[in-house]
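Section 5.1 Outputs to date
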Amino acid sequence: MTPADPDDGTVDAMPDGALLRIRINRPRKMNGFTPRMFRELAEAYTQLETDPELRVGVVYPEGPNFTAGLDLPRFAEMMQRGEPVIPDGLIAPFDLREPRRSKPVVVATRGVTFTVGVELSLAADVALTATDVRMNQIEVKRGVMATGGPTVRLVERAGWGNAMRWLLTGEEWGAEEALRMNIVAEVASPEDVVDRAVDLARRIAAAAPLAVAATRRNAKLALEQGRDAAIAEFGRVNRVLSRTEDAAEGIAAFREKRDPAFRGR
């Protein structure tokens, strides 16, 4: 077996109670993604999805920069052959194909956050960024098109004119513009943004997991298939949820004036 090149970088998946910390770890190269890192990122998302003890993922960088994007020379031949970066059967972090995840992901970005970093933020359930962030989708300056979702999601979030302003120029934008375009929900200091994301993830994990998954699924249904499809599911979903142990626990905790202890059943 050929040993892994230490310059390939890693994506480290570290369980922390109900959270899965997912750390992008190639700081000497500004966390530029290699094929190995993409595969390990998908493996981490798959671990989150399949481990019943895990409820929320938190993606964040090692070092001051989230990612400089793809290490393009390492991907060039794969792109030309049309070879998938993420093997079939793994959860794709961009959430654009099956199998798709059901558990929430929080992303915390800071510093240089190019291409993949923007796409992961758009694919997250909640994204936070730092005041020093530098975002862009530079693909048009490299002769390719962004395929991680911004041609769809940035248009949905920010509107056509706002999205085209950045997608067609490949220019950079900062934290204020990221917040204005609904790419992120909050802005924090570079020192605090990861802690803030972890705190938010812990609060999501404290909610009833079945209800969290149902809420996320219904919102996705509305976004992808329209409001009528989502509304049609209201009654059926709540009938199912109302019969769960978590629903009984929620009522008991309310009556007893205590915090609920949900078990996802």
